[in-house]
Write a structure and sequence with these properties.
By secondary structure, this protein is an alpha/beta fold. Helices cover 40% and strands 15% of the residues. It is built from 10 helices and 8 strands. It has an 8-stranded parallel beta barrel with strand order 1-2-3-4-5-6-7-8, surrounded by 7 helices. Helix 9 links the parallel strand 7 and strand 8.
């Protein structure tokens, strides 16, 4: 449950899904947001890079923020296939996800690389959504908070504020598996993250939002979003359908 000073945020990570034919789902999200959610919850949608510009154009003035799923740390250069934070801003993006566990696993991204990308996001005027989370083996070994503490220390940029940073806690073993931790587990980790942010950023930690991610769907959203220090959700598969995503967004409203 988000503190009164932190507006709930629900973000949809489309991952490598979505073609031009997917645009009507996004248009429905924008329409519903304007129709009654705008003052109660913030929404972000992270489509594949091929749809970033068209989605940003579709939401102009509507308030739904569109972002990218990754960025390069450099502003430009000989980096074939990569996209800079400045390019995301130029395309109309407002945010970027960095350090998602799929990037860390599939591309071997280190905490230092994630931090450099988060710094690039700040440089380009984007909100960095920095992902942290432990694997099933690490949790079984009793190392969950140790792992997340190291990721926070290594991945978050100095001088972060509530306007430049969102932290997303996604237990790796819960992403796309249908499994979710207990509400007690979520409360413990989110409380730990909040404490870690306070130790590093002082009073600014009170306005940095911490999202929960990992198999969030309409059926469990209300329970998860009611947990203390959960300021919203980073949603994967359920964000691809407007009805499901909007149901989660409504569950975040207090």
């Amino acid at each position: 449950m988000s503190d009164a000073g932190r507006k709930p945020l629900v973000a949809g990570n489309w991952k490598m899904n979505g073609l031009g034919a997917s645009a009507p789902e996004f248009v429905r999200i924008v329409g519903a947001y304007q129709g009654g959610l705008k003052d109660k919850v913030d929404l972000m949608v992270f489509p594949p890079a091929t749809l970033l510009t068209s989605f940003a154009s579709a939401t102009r003035g509507a308030g739904v923020m569109v972002g990218a799923q990754d960025c390069h740390a450099e502003a430009s250069g000989a980096h074939t296939g990569d996209i800079s934070a400045e390019m995301i801003t130029d395309a109309g993006g407002k945010a970027v996800i960095v350090g998602h566990s799929e990037r860390r696993a599939d591309h071997g991204e280190t905490d230092a690389q994630v931090r450099a990308k988060a710094e690039a996001a700040k440089r380009a005027g984007l909100i960095a959504v920095v992902c942290v989370g432990e694997t099933e083996a690490q949790r079984t070994q009793g190392r969950a908070t140790e792992v997340v503490a190291a990721q926070l220390a290594g991945s978050l940029p100095d001088g972060a504020t509530g306007k430049t940073l969102v932290v997303a806690y996604e237990p790796v073993w819960a992403i796309g598996t249908g499994l979710t931790p207990t509400t007690d587990d979520v409360a413990e980790m989110h409380g730990f993250i909040r404490q870690s942010l306070a130790e590093r950023f002082g009073a600014e930690a009170d306005v940095i939002r911490v999202l929960y991610g990992g198999s969030v769907k309409p059926g469990n959203a209300a329970e998860l979003l009611a947990v203390n220090d959960v300021d919203g959700a980073l949603v994967g598969g359920a964000s691809l359908k407007a009805d499901d995503f909007l149901a989660i967004a409504r569950a975040a409203v207090r």
